[in-house]
């Protein structure tokens, strides 16, 4: 039994297919199937029940999988620690990003990081601030970029404030407000909105502002992707409230300052519980480019 066989078993279990597992592992299917068959003979157990159309873990395979994952994780940690001992950063870096991040050019930061640490594998997850903060607390993410109402603070994680930005109204080019120099929440309350799902921090920024002003509004469209939000605005279906810095990259819409609009605060968060060498190296790269992050 070796680590590669365990990786193959894990790939088949996760993809549900020998073909897709072979593609993920960059081997031909016959070689992957042969290695797994050898492992099953060595164990004296069938790990997968398979037909020409279906692959499923057996009871023995279900029992084998957690131990295989633990072995692979232990091997990964040993490799990372050994590399760190001689000054080389390896392993995996998981980064969470909100759809409207603007304080940091994340692709540019990753470019700088990869130039310095090419042996690190990077995983990106886009989500809401509460989901990403939970991912950092639970260890599924190493760092995350969040956007919160100015009254909120990230909980259970290390945090650095990156920037503050006031939300602006985003309207279609033919909308009556497109020619306005400024608008207030009372006027916006007359409009139909597209916004992030209720209960998310991205939505809370606007909800709290309207509630504080004693105003209600209609949110007819709830979406999780900022680009879809702006496409709905372009069609004239609704208006939106988005951070001013983010809207600099949005075309074919008009942004209007909101006199009493809400403020969004961007944060960088990470866990100080045994951060990986890759995490510390990424924080170093961010700090070197923007010392206020340190």
Produce a short descriptive summary.
The chain has 294 residues and is of the alpha/beta class.
Task: Characterise the protein shown here.
This protein has 294 residues and is α/β, with parallel strands linked by helices. The chain folds into three domains: 3-85, Winged helix-like DNA-binding domain superfamily/Winged helix DNA-binding domain (Arc Repressor Mutant, subunit A, Orthogonal Bundle); 91-162 and 266-293, D-Maltodextrin-Binding Protein, domain 2 (3-Layer(aba) Sandwich), CATH 3.40.190.10; 163-263, Periplasmic binding protein-like II (D-Maltodextrin-Binding Protein, domain 2, 3-Layer(aba) Sandwich), CATH 3.40.190.10. It is 43% helix and 22% strand. The chain contains eleven helices and eleven strands. It has helices at residues 3-15, 18-25, 29-43, 59-85, 106-116, 129-138, 185-188, 201-212, 226-234, 244-247, 277-289; strands spanning 48-50, 55-57, 91-97, 120-126, 143-149, 158-171, 192-195, 218-222, 240-243, 254-257, 263-270. The strands form three sheets. Strands 3, 4, 5, 6, 9, 10 and 11 form a seven-stranded mixed sheet that branches. Strands 1-2 form a two-stranded antiparallel ribbon. A hairpin with a 4-residue loop joins strand 1 (48-50) and strand 2. Helix 1 (3-15) packs across helix 4 (59-85). The chain is elongated and about 75 Å long. The protein starts with a helix and ends in a 5-residue tail after the last helix.
């Amino acid at each position: 039994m070796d680590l590669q066989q365990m990786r193959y078993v894990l790939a088949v279990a996760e993809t549900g297919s020998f073909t897709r597992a072979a593609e993920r592992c960059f081997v031909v299917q016959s070689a992957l199937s042969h290695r797994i068959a050898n492992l099953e003979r060595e164990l004296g157990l069938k790990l997968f029940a398979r037909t020409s159309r279906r692959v499923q873990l057996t009871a023995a395979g279900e029992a084998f999988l957690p131990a295989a994952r633990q072995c692979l994780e232990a091997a990964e940690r040993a490799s990372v620690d050994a590399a760190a001992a001689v000054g080389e950063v390896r392993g995996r870096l998981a980064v969470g990003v909100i759809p409207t991040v603007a304080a940091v050019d994340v692709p540019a930061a990753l470019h700088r990081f990869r130039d310095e640490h090419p042996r690190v594998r990077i995983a990106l997850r886009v989500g809401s601030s509460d989901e990403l903060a939970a991912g950092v607390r639970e260890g599924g993410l190493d760092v995350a970029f969040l956007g919160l109402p100015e009254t909120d603070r990230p909980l259970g994680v290390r945090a650095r404030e990156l920037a503050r930005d006031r939300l602006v109204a985003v309207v279609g080019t033919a909308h009556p407000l497109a020619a306005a120099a400024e608008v207030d929440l009372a006027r916006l309350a007359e409009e139909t909105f597209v916004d992030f799902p209720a209960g998310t921090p991205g939505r809370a920024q606007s909800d709290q502002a309207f509630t504080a002003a004693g105003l209600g509004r209609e949110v007819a469209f709830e979406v999780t992707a900022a680009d879809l939000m702006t496409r709905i605005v372009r069609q004239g279906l609704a208006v939106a409230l988005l951070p001013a810095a983010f809207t600099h990259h949005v075309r074919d819409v008009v942004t209007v300052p909101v006199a009493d609009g809400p403020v969004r605060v961007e944060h960088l968060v990470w866990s100080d519980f045994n951060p990986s060498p890759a995490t510390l190296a990424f924080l170093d790269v961010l700090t070197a480019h923007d010392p206020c992050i340190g």
